[in-house]
Design goal:
Layout: H1 6-16, H2 18-42, E1 45-49, E2 59-60, E3 66-70, E4 90-92, E5 107-108, E6 115-122, E7 135-141, E8 153-165, E9 177-184, H3 188-197, E10 200-207
Length: 212
């Protein structure tokens, strides 16, 4: 009769040890969980984000936005995807900050009649803390005889700064910069009259964007 060696008996007991089996099960389950998490991340939906500040009334197309793969679950259906943008593009209906995902609620398929953009020349410098997206009140001091100006008054309230315009060529001594504003259409006539009349224009912050 053949007798098993002591080392063989120890290996047999180790293989039958329930603690070893439990450990193997836990390791296998842990690996499976990690694989599942990675797979879930890979299955995130691709939505679109704004690479820069987008202002109300601006028309954009797919090339103006950046794709982002994110895991949002049901919330992902509330953001713009490439399939949501027609060939004609979309129009931003409210401001979207740089780097933000673009909500479906912030876009439309045609420009509304309420606002438009206009470039104005300022006689006083824009504040250093003002940034694109901030709300500004546009003031005008009417030009009078002998180079004098009358009392200033607001001619467009709650306009939005789109951008500052880089000066080109000769700049007038009374010019403190040019800016592009998003303004209500009802205020366009007053603004154009002030520009044609040579009125002194100033843009005063009505509110500043967060982090501006």
């Amino acid at each position: 009769m053949t007798t098993a060696s002591p080392s063989t008996e120890r290996r047999a007991r180790r293989y039958r040890d329930p603690r070893l089996l439990i450990g193997l099960v836990l390791v296998t389950a842990s690996i499976g969980a990690v694989i599942g998490i990675v797979a879930l991340a890979d299955e995130g939906e691709e939505v679109l984000a704004a690479p820069r500040l987008l202002v109300e009334g601006e028309r954009i197309d797919r090339g103006d936005l950046e794709p982002r793969r994110v895991v949002l679950g049901l919330e992902a259906h509330g953001y713009v995807t490439a399939a949501d943008i027609p060939e004609s593009g979309i129009v931003i209906t409210r401001t979207v900050g740089a780097g933000e995902l673009v909500p479906l609620s912030a876009v439309g398929d045609e420009r509304g009649p309420r606002s438009t953009t206009v470039v104005v020349t300022l006689s006083t410098a824009l504040g250093a803390t003002v940034r694109p997206g901030d709300r500004l009140d546009l003031w005008a001091a009417p030009a009078e005889e002998a180079g004098r100006f009358g009392a200033p008054a607001v001619i467009a309230s709650g306009t939005q700064l789109v951008r500052t315009v880089t000066a080109e060529g000769i700049v007038s001594s009374g010019e403190a910069g040019r800016i592009e504003l998003l303004v209500p259409r009802r205020d366009v006539a007053r603004i154009l009259f002030a520009l044609a009349n040579g009125d002194a224009l100033s843009a005063i912050p009505a509110s500043l964007s967060v982090g501006g």
